[in-house]
Amino acid sequence: MDTPELPSVSAVNGPISHMIARATKAHIGAAAGLLRKAGLTAGPELLLMVLWDRDGRSQAELGKALGLDPSTITAKVKTLERDGLIVRTPDPADRRAMVVSLTEKGAALRPEVERIWAELEAVTTRGFSDRQRAEFLRMLRRVEANLLAPQEQ
Question: pLDDT value at position 15?
């Protein structure tokens, strides 16, 4: 695949931000290709991962855990429910809320998705030393913290 040309404005004013956007797009594309083999699309597998850590969460809890708004969580939940990977049941403590739980089919995907994410990690950091991987992870965490921190006006 040809590497897209870096726009001159970005090269002068925001080359790091531009490369983050490009790397994100490439990473999502690589993840989508690997996940397609397991019958998944990129994105909903993150919701499954949260449920694998602790099953039986409300949609609000899922949204908070993933940093997503209610409409986005609802769409992901509907997709996974349609695919038979999760079920929604009324919360016995709050009938207005729904509890999202894994089905056997959803739980059974865990080893495959973990294998895919390990492969994605290897592809993403190909050629990195262990030290470079650790430093890259530290830097990405810093970038995330910077972007989530309140912006000074």
Answer: 84
